[in-house]
Amino acid sequence: MRPAPIIAPSILAADFAHLADEVRAIEGAADWVHVDVMDNHFVPNLTIGLPVVKSLRAATDIPFDVHLMITEPERWAPGYAEAGAYNVTFHAEACDDPVHLAKTLRAAGAKAGLAIDRDTPVEPYLELLPYVDTVLIMTIKAGFGGQSFLPEMLGKVRDVRRRIKVKDLEVRLEVDGGIAADTIEQAAAAGADAFVAGTAVYGAQDPAEAIRRLRGLAAEAPQSA
Ligand code: DX5
Ligand code: ZN
Description:
Blueprint: E1 6-9, H1 19-24, E2 33-38, H2 50-57, E3 64-69, H3 73-82, E4 87-91, H4 98-107, E5 111-116, E6 134-138, H5 154-166, E7 172-176, H6 184-190, E8 194-197, H7 199-202, H8 207-220
Parallel strand pairs: 1-8, 2-3, 3-4, 4-5, 5-6, 6-7, 7-8
Helix pairs in contact: 3-4, 6-8
Bound molecules: D-xylitol-5-phosphate and zinc ion.
């Protein structure tokens, strides 16, 4: 049986002037908080870096799911693990030696995650699954919140789920981008068991309630994969 779905609201859709309050508003409802770090190089957008993440870390007990959309993750990712992130995900496209970086992150006390962007096939990375704790399949092009979910990315989710199953691995399979009440079931049915949601949570009147609804939908989706 698959573990209970993880819901990870993305702070990208929150009010950055009140980040700590925005994160506290989902305590007790969210499993992880998804922290999108963008460097204006790997993606055109720019968000926050380590000093802000450190301050935020001290403001809440919710585990941090840090999504690094940056170049040179070898240089920066370990700092997030040392700052107490629960999971640190870096992009396959930005990293020459993902296995080495995953080992470094684990040694620093974090889970290690590998992200695959929209235009990157997943096949070359399936062999790396035993070395990571999470795989994040982008269901949009990384860089901006509020984009529409791309159902054609679900083939990658199915491929990763199949490999996890065949090799009996303990890897969380996360999807990121356009996840909402009308898309989460198909992602869960394809094999995802962790769901990032920015707009669908922070754009809702009651973010905590939106999280509970998403979790219920994910849990009820048929698990064919
Ligand atoms: C975009 C980020 C996502 C983003 C998702 O590159 O990685 O985490 O915040 O936002 P929504 O849920 O609005 O698509
Ligand atoms: Zn993200």
